[in-house]
Task: inverse folding
């Protein structure tokens, strides 16, 4: 019986793969059989070495998404791709009344514009080869909620959800599925301060029906599913992986 979750022989590029959720996604895709191009603004050598140690196949590619057009222009260096995971993101915090234009532009460039420019470059290459493919964007709980003190991040993640749907509409007939995964509270460096604050951590855990912080591997599993034949008829979806946070 064939394994509908196997992606042997595919080539996948994962942005922001130097650590955290991106690193877990890269490992998960490699374990499912993909050759992974781990990209980031900083070195992804550790990720490549982890994949190799586990018997997988990977290489690194430096991409600075602070310049989305330049990053998209370099996508060809990764070779023909079957899978694109737009995971990289940044966050800048300040009260909305004090939020600077520079912080707004920086966050929107990395978290939204780069998602579009890389997806566009991926699709153009696929169309030129008469090939299909899979795009998975990493959204957020703040694709649905407002949050506080992160206006650019919230706007960008709402935009990622909308962009996922419009690209799915336009490209489904050409064989490209476009979906997103919206992580909940995941145990990464970005949430270390929250987890180390006993009061805030308790408040968060009390809201999560699953009763625990998510693991980066939880996100990797969802992304791998969306990249596999098991998800052939799934497109335009935003899959919440949040332990039930949004259901409460």
Result:
């Amino acid at each position: 019986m064939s394994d509908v979750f196997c992606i042997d022989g595919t080539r996948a590029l994962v942005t922001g793969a130097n650590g955290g959720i991106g690193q877990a996604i890269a490992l998960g895709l490699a374990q499912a059989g993909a050759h992974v191009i781990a990209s980031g603004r900083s070195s992804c050598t550790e990720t490549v070495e982890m994949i190799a140690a586990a018997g997988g196949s990977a290489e690194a590619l430096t991409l600075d998404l602070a310049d989305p057009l330049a990053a998209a222009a370099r996508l060809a260096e990764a070779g023909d791709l079957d899978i694109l995971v737009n995971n990289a993101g940044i966050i800048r915090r300040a009260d909305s009344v004090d939020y600077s234009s520079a912080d707004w532009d920086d966050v929107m460039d990395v978290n939204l514009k780069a998602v579009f420019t890389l997806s566009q470059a991926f699709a153009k290459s696929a169309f030129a080869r008469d090939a299909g493919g899979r795009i998975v964007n990493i959204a957020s709980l703040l694709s649905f909620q407002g949050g506080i003190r992160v206006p650019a991040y919230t706007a960008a993640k709402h935009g990622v959800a909308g962009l996922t749907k419009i690209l799915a509409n336009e490209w489904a007939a050409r064989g490209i599925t476009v979906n997103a995964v919206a992580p909940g509270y995941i145990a990464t460096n970005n949430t270390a301060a929250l987890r180390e604050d006993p009061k805030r951590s308790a408040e968060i855990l009390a809201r999560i029906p699953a009763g625990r912080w998510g693991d980066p591997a939880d996100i990797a599993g969802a992304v791998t599913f969306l990249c596999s034949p098991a998800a052939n008829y799934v497109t335009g979806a935003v899959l919440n992986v949040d332990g039930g946070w949004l259901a409460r």
Remarks:
- Strands lie at 11-14, 35-40, 57-62, 83-86, 133-138, 176-183, 238-241.
- Residues 11-247 form a domain with the Rossmann fold fold (CATH 3.40.50.720).
- The chain has a mean pLDDT of 96.
- The chain has one domain: 11-247.
